[in-house]
Amino acid sequence: MTLREAEFHPSEKLTTRFRQFAVAGLIATAVGAVFAGERTWLMLLLFSFLLLGMSLAGAVFVALHYVIGAAWSTAVRRVAEAMALLLPLGGLGVLAVLFFHPEVYPWLHEHDLPAFKQAWLALGFFRTRAIFYLLAWTFFIWMLVLGSRRQDEDGDIAHTRRNTRFATAFLIVFGVTFWLASYDWLMSLEPDWA
Fold first, then answer.
1. What pLDDT does 3 receive?
2. DSSP letter at 73?
3. Contacts by 71-80 with C-beta closer than 8 Å and gap 24+?
4. Cα gap 103→109, rounded to integer Å
5. d(CA 127, CA 136)
């Protein structure tokens, strides 16, 4: 095995160790769900938001490099693209909380909220916005990574031009949706947020 192959193929022992950690984490989560359910769901929400943040940080890095025309970043851009592909995992965690245990949000059972807050936090609208945010981010990330991989295959500069347009649109959508998602998913955990 050459050094280059070793860089991209972890040893079987290391892979087995990571799988063992993953199984231990799943067991700990299951035990936590049984003995401290509220805390486990809250931690799932926060961990999922962390994964989303890492994913979106990678996507913003890639998008910025397309928008400013940075040609030097092709090699390091691959790491950011890989980070961006964590989005579905983080999104599933957020959706799991919103659909299976929305009780982490104390406003769910409050009836004396101001009219706007009551409309904004209606559970159906809350979930719909979450799905919209995740679908929008997934679409843009998928298009950016797909265009990048296609350019690797055929070297056509048209993929870069197309990705520049997608990156510009993504940065605008990201600026609005991440702000709203942060308020929706984290700030609204505090009952008296404003």
1. 46
2. T
3. 77/148
4. 8
5. 14
**Residue appearing with tokens 């970043």:** 73
Q: How confident is the prediction along the chain (194 residues), in pLDDT tens digits per residue?
A: 454 544 556 688 888 998 999 899 889 888 888 888 788 899 999 999 999 999 999 999 999 998 998 878 777 888 999 999 999 999 999 999 999 999 999 888 877 888 888 888 899 999 999 999 999 999 999 999 888 888 777 877 787 789 889 999 999 999 999 999 999 999 988 867 76
* Whether the Cβ atoms of residue 94 and residue 52 lie closer than 8 Å to each other: yes
* Contact by Cβ (8 Å): 101, 89: no
Length of the chain: 194
Best CA proximity match to 46, nearest among 102, 97, 122: 97
Q: Please give the distance of CA 154 from its chain centroid, rounded to a whole number.
A: 29
Which residues have C-beta within 8 Å of that of residue 61, sequence separation ≥ 6?
77, 80, 83
Report phi then psi at 113, rounded to 5: -75, 150
